Every structure is written in C-alpha cells, then in structure tokens.
Amino acid sequence: MWNYKIKLALRHLWKDKVFTGINILGLALGIAVSTAIFLYANYHYSYDRFHEDPEEIYRVLTIDKALGVSSSRVGICPPAAGPAALNIPGVKAQTRYLSQGQNLLRVGERSIYAESFAFVDSNFFEFFNFPLKYGNASQILRSPNQAILSAELATKLFGQENPVGKTIQTSNAPDPVIVEGVFEDLPENSHIQFEMALSLVPNPGDTNTAQFLSTWQSIAAPTYIRLSEESDWESINAQLLEIARNNDYGDNFDLTMQPMLEAHLYSTELLFDNYNIGKTDIGQIRNLVLVAIFLILIAAFNFMNLSTARSAKRAREIGMRKVLGAQKEQLIAQFLFESIFLVFLAFLFSLFILQIFGNSIGIQVPEGYLSYFIANPGFWLYAIALILILGLLSGIYPAFVLSAYEPIKTLKGNFKSHGSGLWMRRALVSLQFAVSIAVIIGMLVVQAQIDYMNEKDMGFSKENLLSLRLNSREAIQNAESLKNQIEKIDGVLGLSSANALPGTGYGRNGVVPEGYSGDDVWIFSTTAVHHNFAEVMKLEVLEGRFYDDEHPADLQNSVIINEAAAEALGWEEALGKKLQLGPNERTIIGVIKNFHYVGLRYPIEPLLLFPQSRLAGSVAIKIDAQKTAQALDDISMAWTEVNPNIPFEYQFFDDQFNEIFQDDQRFAQVLNSFNWLTIIIACLGLLGLSAYSVDQRTRELGLRKVLGANFTQIFMVLSKEFWYLLLVSNALAIPIAYYYMQAWLSEFVYRIELSFWPFLLALALSFALAWLTIASQAYRALRIDPVKALKYE
Amino acid sequence: MAFIEIKQLTKTYRMEEIETTALNEVSLRIEKGEFLALMGPSGCGKSTLLNVLGMLDKADAGSYTFGGEEVANLNEKKRSILRKNNIGFVFQSFNLIDELSVAENIELPLIYTKEPANERKAKVNAMLERMGLANRAKHYPQQLSGGQQQRVAVGRALITDPHIILADEPTGNLDSAHGDEVMKLLQELHEAGTTIVMVTHSEHDAQYASRILRLHDGMILQPSAAN
C-alpha cells in the first residue's frame, strides 16, 4: 500500500512537472531561509546551556541610581561581592573573571597575540564546565603568575607537546607566567570568551591588587554565583545587598542578579558588559523568527493555492476512484500523503539550498553548526514536525475540496471547479502579495535608515583614519618614538590617541559638579584623549579651547565636557566651572560639540574628556586618501623599527566604528533576502493562478482569438480579476507596514522620517511584477491553437 | 425475487428556475443474468437511471432493492461498500487513470476491497490474459488505442467479480470496428452469466442485449422487447 502510494504520488508530481517545480521551489526556498533563521535562533538560544545545571548560575549586577544615567543595569559589581555572597545560605559557590583584552605573549623568540585574556578565580574551571585537556581544575591558578591556555593558543605557542610547566612572557606584567594547564577551546556559544586565563592571586607585596579584590568601593568585577536548587534568588539578593550596605557600599548603587541563561539575549541595555561576548538582542531574534514563520506560511499558501487550482485536472480521477469504491477518508489520506511527500522533497531540496547558498542569506550560523544540528535528534524532531505540519496544513484544504467532488459530475468530462475554492485562492494570493508589499516597504525603510546612519554626520570624521592599539607595556613605553617616526611619514596628516575611540565603549565616572551638594553624584561617560585629538578627529570646540602642549598644567587640573554635559547640569556658561572627581578638582577649559560616541539608537550622553599625558590606548592616524597604500607601508615599517618584537596590527577606523550598526545591518540583509523570496513566491502564486485561469478558459480564449483578439485584449481579459486582488493586498499591507516600521524606527533616537516614497515604490513594484507574471500567461494564451481549443473539453 | 427491483423511482433536478424531471415514477425489475439495454433520446433520463442503479446518485422518492436489500436510503459510506463489492462500471470516456499502468488500473478496485497483494497479482494477470492485454500490462492508457482502453476499463469493471456491470455508452467514443470488439466482449460476459445494464444510442449495439427498455421524459415507454 505504501509502495503504491509513493509510486502514485511520484507519478502525479512528475506528470505535472511545472506545478511540481513551482511548488517544490517555492516551498524549498521558504524552508531553507526559515531553517537558517531557526538554526540561528536555536544557536543563540543554546548559549551557555552546556554548563551543568546552568539555571543555578546567576550574574551579580549593579543597579546604578546616579543622575545623568540613561540605563541603570551595569554588568559588573564590586570585587568583594562574590566572596561575601558565600556567607549567605543557599549560595554554593562564586567565581570572578576580569577580562583584559589583547596580550602579546613571548616564548623564546616567538611573539604571538592572545586576542583576549582574563584573570580568573582559582575555582573558575570547576565552577563552569570548561573541560581541561591538561591539568587538574581543582589544583590550578592558586598562586600568582599561573596561566592556563586554550588548546588552540597552546598549539600556536608550543606545537603538539604538553606545555604544562613551561613559561611565557606576557606584555602586561614583568614576571613570566607558568603554564598550569590547557583547556579545550571555549564553545562558540559561550558568552565568556578568552584564550588565556591568569591566576587572580596578587604577588606577595602587591597590596593594590589585594585591596582591589576586597573592595566595595569600586565596581569592576564580572561575578557569578551558583545557588542551590531550592534557594530563592530574590531573598539571596536582599541579603547580599544588606551585606553590601554594612560595608559602606555607596547609596547610589544597588545589587541585582541575572540568570546566566539570560546574559546572552536579555542584556542589550546593560552597560559595562563588553566581556559579554556576542551579546544579541532578543528583539532581533524575535523579528527574525517572525520573518521565518511568515515565510513558511506564504510558501504553504502557495502550495494550497496551486494544489486547489490544479484540482480540476484531477476531478475525473477522483470521481473514478469513488466509483470504484474509494472512501472519502481514503482519498483524503492519499492527498495528504501526496502533500506531505511533496513537503518532504522540498525539505531535502532546502537542505541542499542551505548548504550551497546558506552564507548569502545574511544569517551567519557558525561554521559546522549545520552538521552539528543535523547530528542532533532535535533537528530530526524539527524536520519531522515541520514536514508533517506543513504537509497537513497545506494539504488539508485541497484534500477536503477534492474528496468532496461528486463522482457523476466529474466523469462526464467538462467539469469545472467553481465557487468556494476560487475565493479561497484569491484570498491567499492577496495575502501573499500583501506580505510581499509589506516586506518591500520594510526593506526600503530599513535600508534608508542604514544609509542615513552611514552618512549621518557623527560629529567627528571617521574617514581615512587608521587605528593602532598600544596594549603592551613595551608599546606604551615606545609610544613617543613611534609618534615621532609616524609624524614624519609623507601622507600622514595627523596623529593622536585616546583611551577608547568612539564606538568602542567609554568608561564612566562619578562627579560632583560645582554648585551641587556632595550627595548629588552625577555619572558621566569619560575617556582620556591626547592633545590634538580634536584636530585629528575633527571634533568641533564650541567654547574655550582643546588640550595643547602649551598648557602642561592641564594634565592635573583641567577637563573638557560636551554640550550634553553642560545642558544636563543646566549651565549656560560652563567655562571655568569646576568638577569634583574623588579627591581631585578640575576646571572646565572647553566645551565641545556633541558627537555620537555610541551608535544612533541611543542619545548622546554627557561626556568628560580628560587629558592623556602621553600616547596611550588607541592611536588614531589621519591619512591622505591619495597616499593610503604608501603611508600604510611606511607606518608598518616605523612600527617594526620601534617595536621589533610586536606584530603590527591595524584597523580602518570606519570599519571598526560601523560594527555598532552590525545588528541593524544584519536585519537589513535578512530582510533583503526575505524580500526577494516573498516576491518570488508571491509571483509563483500568481503565475499558478493565472496559468490555471488560462487552462480553465482555453475554449473562451481560443474563441476570442478566432474572433481577432490581440495580446492586449487577451491580457485585459486575463488580468481583470487580479487588479482588484492587488489593490486589496496594498490596502492590507500599507497600514501594517507603516505601523511596524514606525515602531522599528522609534528604537532609534536618530532616525529618518517615514516618507510616502517606500509605499509608492512598493505599490508600483507590486503592479509591475503582477503585470509581468500575467503577461507571460497572456502570451501563452495567445499561442493556443484555436482549433484544438474549440474541441477541448 | 428479482435481483434488482425499483418501484416508483422519481428524481428531479433544479437549475435556477427550471425544474427537470429526470425519472418519473419509474418501476423496473432486472433478473440475474439479464443483459438490458437502456435507450432513448438525450436527456430522457437513461444515464440518471444508470447512476441510481449504480448507487452513484440517489433518487428523491421510491424504493430500490438490490439483492433483496433496500438501498434507496443508505448513506454514502454504505453505498460505497455495496458498490465496490457488487458493481462494475464501464464509461463512454473510459475514465482510466492516466498515471497508472494498464495492470495498475485493473488492480485498483482490488486495493479498495483490501485484497491481499499476491491474490491481486494473480487476478490481474488472469484478467489481462482474458482481455487479451497481457502484452500491454506495463503500458499507460495514452499508449493504447480506444478499443484497448475500453477493454482495460471492462477488465477493471470485472476484476472484483461483480454481480452486475453497468455500462454507459461503452462504444460511444470508439469507431465501429473497436465498438464491435467491445460489444462482443460484453456478449461473452453475458453468456457466461454476468448481469449487464447498458445505456446506448446505437440500435446496432442494443441488438446484443436480451431486453431493450426505451425511456422518454423520465418514463419507460414500452415495458420490454425481447431480442
């Protein structure tokens, strides 16, 4: 019986090759993109779940209640909080992790960058399930200057041999470190990422670090605690806060806890969360999943549509089967089987599409994840569920319509399926077009916003800027000679530095402004810049002056603020006013025009610029666009001459800065591919419907041709019913798209105004595409042989 | 007791404003082994009568006993069971399923009566032999002549050993040579004891029958005419 069903299904599909092709193609495209999106969503959902009992782990966060702050949750807490939490019943363990960025490692003559390293508590590898290749998790990192390397870094430094016991010279400290173990490379879906961990144990006599580790006065350490199964985090949180208050933890701050499993997707607005690697916004995932569901639905609509439209061709077969004793249920089963079978074929095809074009749809699922996923039983569950649901969903309507035919009406030949089915099909095609139109509008609006962001005046110049990082003691020591060398290079227009360049995350400081009481602590973003920073970055000084080498006293007692800071403090005349920062007092010597140092989704917040005594952090070099290549070579040579042991690495600043739009750009790209897909699928739907119309009206069209109708007249006859559908589609799509895009744009503080252009363009495009599709069928109708058509039954 | 007996059978069709009486209180008995030809002009109700006999259509009023069982008011499911076990159909337009081979078309009714696979195979082979189609078993309907297609249809109608064959203008789409071929086949079946009811326009074909009924405006004109 199965054999028979499969055979019959295959022959039907093969007989109607065009129909089958359209159906399988439409479905497979839809499934491919949707599967990619689900893979992507599943990947992000899988973050940090590989740990043992991950739901028991919480991050301790700070709530910042200070003035001048737009977001209150901060991803770090005082270093003392973790150890203190161990005194609370219900807290099983704590561990801390201080992420430190790049580190230049030297073994003998070889120098290699560790892209990121961290200081971690000695129990870190017991607390988390990061398995060790060499070493024992319960014995490592207990003394100062101990290190544990990722397997990849260990291989880079030492080849295949076991490196335990070897020493490495790091760039952050004078003493070498001893390798205590090797951990397996951290899974990509871990929000904690580093290549090397060093022991968080101060050297004897290093009172600074020891003090830092037990302070309640500084907010600095990402901290994790593990609760026992039955404990209640809220009560533990309250007890922890009480301990903090007893230790003079500032009144401006509270402590809160976040389940570790929420760290990856629910931390968008968190500040000081830079070491939460790969952080993604749940809203973005939701948008994409919505897109996926839409896509699958319209592909399924297509299928229902084409199957029902085709039903007339099978009416006779169905009638005959009924005469021969087939029960209605048997016929329904056969049709459902055929549709499930078709979805199955489409699914196989979609895997093929995914394999080949997966990377061009704009969703980057990490390499190897597809095969991992296929090896996972969850995938097969997804596949089976998808095939069954989609097969049933898209097969059920045609199955019931077809199996309800009365046999004697179908066996006489010129049977036509009028009525209910047609309205259903029209409704579905309208819906498909509505989705396409809405997506076209969405794509145009998103693209316009992205263009706007790319082109918007950020308040500084990001073009032709090279950025280098000085992240080892050696490089910082050699900074002056590097500067002297580079400034001499032809094509270099200027050079400066800042602790952090715009877009890369600034620090924050509490200040008490002049005229405010000591209780009113304001929290402002801060960074330190070298004296010609304004010139190199083209920052505009509105009042006063910028730092320059003629005022060496600036280093001790001056500060520059942005307009937003002056405004927040209500100062019309800010020059000469004083800011109290801890024990130091600084006088405002300049006010600069606001510039966007954190993307356009957020408002420009108050900012303080402190002076750097020497080149440090990131160096920004302005280059003459005409001489880029030569200048780059010369800079590289200068670097190697000054820092022979440190590899030369650079970035173009605009690339680096644009990374803050990455999520939006990804959304635009997905929307773009989704857009083409919905258009293709909607056109396939219309093609099917108009082809069906031609088939049904062969005799009529043949007669019209005999009577002298030309292409335009045939086209008008065929297209008449579709223009109304298209108007309905537009009427449906435009308000929905308007509402949704308005909501999307409102997430940006700096945004375009919605104009009527995207709407008009989408409307025109939908009509143009419909015209083309129907015209192809009119052309086909025109080639009908009238003699055959008139005999046709 | 007659094999088939219908009494006072009435069937009307309504289309917009016009009501057509297809069958007007028709009464009729058919004995086992009879070969009955139904004749009459277009629209006289002969196809409707055949459809009612074949339980493809329901009458509005009257009684219909089939093998002693009253079937006039059975639901679709019960009628379909009776149909597949007792009745074979042959149509003017063959109504073969294009996607199935000759052998598979003949086999189809056995699938619906849930015959085991090995028996199906044996029966189909025997039927192909009997219809002279053994060398065409793997062909598809489009590859056969009209006469051959109608033989496939007859083979399909006979495969379940039905008590009665209902044929609706079985030669209507065939030239005379192929038409005779089919009529001879029906005659052989009749001689072997199969009950046959055939609708036809052709006086020539009607001569093969053992009895001819003529219908006009939904009524039987003359009770019988022996061959």
Q: Could you characterize what this model shows?
A:
- The complex is a heterodimer of chains A (793) and B (227).
- With 793 residues, chain A is of the alpha+beta class.
- Helix content of chain A is 49%, strand content 17%.
- Chain A contains 26 helices and 22 strands.
- In chain A, a hairpin with a 2-residue loop joins β3 and β4.
- The radius of gyration of chain A is 33 Å and the shape is elongated.
- Chain A starts with a helix and ends with a helix.
- The relative contact order of chain A is 0.11.
- With 227 residues, chain B is of the alpha/beta class.
- Chain B has helices at 46-53, 76-86, 102-112, 117-130, 146-158, 176-191, 203-206; strands spanning 4-15, 18-30, 35-39, 61-66, 69-70, 87-91, 164-168, 195-199, 211-216, 219-222.
- Chain B is globular.
- The mean pLDDT of chain B is 86.
- The chains are: A alpha+beta (793), B alpha/beta (227).
- At the A-B interface, α1 and α9 of A face α2 and α3 of B.
Please render the helix and strand layout as text.
The complex is a heterodimer of chains A (793) and B (227).
Chain A: H1 2-15, H2 17-45, E1 57-64, E2 73-74, H3 81-85, E3 91-107, E4 110-120, H4 124-127, E5 132-134, E6 146-150, H5 151-158, E7 167-168, E8 177-183, E9 196-199, H6 207-213, E10 223-227, H7 233-246, E11 253-259, H8 260-263, H9 282-323, H10 328-357, H11 369-374, H12 377-403, H13 407-410, H14 420-455, E12 465-470, H15 473-477, H16 479-487, E13 492-498, E14 507-513, E15 522-529, H17 533-537, E16 541-544, H18 554-557, E17 558-562, H19 563-569, E18 578-581, E19 584-592, E20 607-611, E21 617-623, H20 628-642, E22 651-652, H21 653-658, H22 662-696, H23 698-706, H24 711-745, H25 757-782, H26 786-791
Parallel strand pairs in A: 4-9, 6-8, 15-20, 17-19
Antiparallel strand pairs in A: 1-2, 1-10, 1-11, 3-4, 3-10, 5-8, 6-9, 7-8, 12-21, 12-22, 13-21, 14-15, 14-18, 16-19, 17-20, 18-19
Helix pairs in contact in A: 1-10, 2-9, 2-10, 2-22, 9-12, 9-14, 9-22, 10-12, 14-22, 14-24, 14-25, 16-20, 22-25, 24-25
Chain B: E1 4-15, E2 18-30, E3 35-39, H1 46-53, E4 61-66, E5 69-70, H2 76-86, E6 87-91, H3 102-112, H4 117-130, H5 146-158, E7 164-168, H6 176-191, E8 195-199, H7 203-206, E9 211-216, E10 219-222
Parallel strand pairs in B: 3-8, 3-9, 6-7, 7-8
Antiparallel strand pairs in B: 1-2, 1-4, 4-5, 9-10
